[in-house]
Amino acid sequence: MMGAGGRAHVVAGLFGIVAGLLVTIGAALPAVTVHASELALGVPAPSFPATFAARIAGIVCAALGLAVTVLGARVRPALSVAWSGLPLTVVAVLVPALAATAAPSGLDALVTLGAALPRFTLSLGAWLLISGAVLGVAAGIACLVAGNADRDAAPAMPGDDGGGPPAALRAAAAVAGVVAVVGLLLPAYSSPLGSAPWIGRDALPAVETWTQSGVAVALAVVAVLVPRSRPARAVALALGAALVATDYALLARGPAGATAASGSYCSVAGAVLFVLVAVVVPMVGRRPAQ
Questions:
Q1: Looking at 47-51, 197-201, 274-278, which range is the least confident one?
Q2: Counting Cβ atoms within 10 Å, is residue 232 exposed (0-12), middle (13-18) or buried (19+)?
Q3: I need a labelling partner for 227 at 20 to 30 A (CA). Which of 41, 101, 110, 137 fits?
Q4: Phi, psi (deg, nearest 5) at residue 45
Q5: The pTM is what?
Q6: Cα gap 158→150, rounded to integer Å
Q7: Which has the closest alpha carbon to 126: 255, 206, 30?
């Protein structure tokens, strides 16, 4: 019979699956629709390079959600971090999509005596992305609930009281966290039209910047939790953080002429370091109580 912890993991996994699928499908569909008057003039629908990163983040979230429904607590810590890749990448698609819908059509301005209609409107793809990001947040909350149920039901392990993580593991996790956090606070790409949104670009932080900062805080928390967690959970947390850092690095696929910038390089380095931490955790374990 499935206990409360098992049911909580199934719920968290289902949220992750649905959220990931919605984002994956939404990223494969057009985010905006060309208004009829513009379509008649041959105006093409704009493309949003961030849909590639959103698609990858969606696939990862759906796969982890499926794994959580089957394996439960062994995978849940990874999903509890990786879900944040959904809003991170979805916002990078939606902000330019909304900006495109704000551009009025000159032809409509003439036809309607100045009451200009938008050149583009949000399409099904954008609404699926929004829905997936919201359900991604729900998956994260469900992971917290499942984690609390798991901790309440788990017996105490040797080294849980009085023990602590080895200094080398704390240092490795700290370095990985710092590098990944710095990456999220720097631009993912630069182009002739300017750099990607980052914390130092605008006087007033943009929506993308707030999202990046929130995810950066989450990765900093993970870097603190990894050395303090049991080995299996620490490995899952570190791998989840590596996936999120990779999601941000994929945003380097910016507009035409864009090249990867410092944020992308730091995020790749942070992802690699978190993977190395995940490899080291089973080797060093926890320091037993003295």
A1: 197-201
A2: middle
A3: 137
A4: -75, 140
A5: 0.86
A6: 17
A7: 30
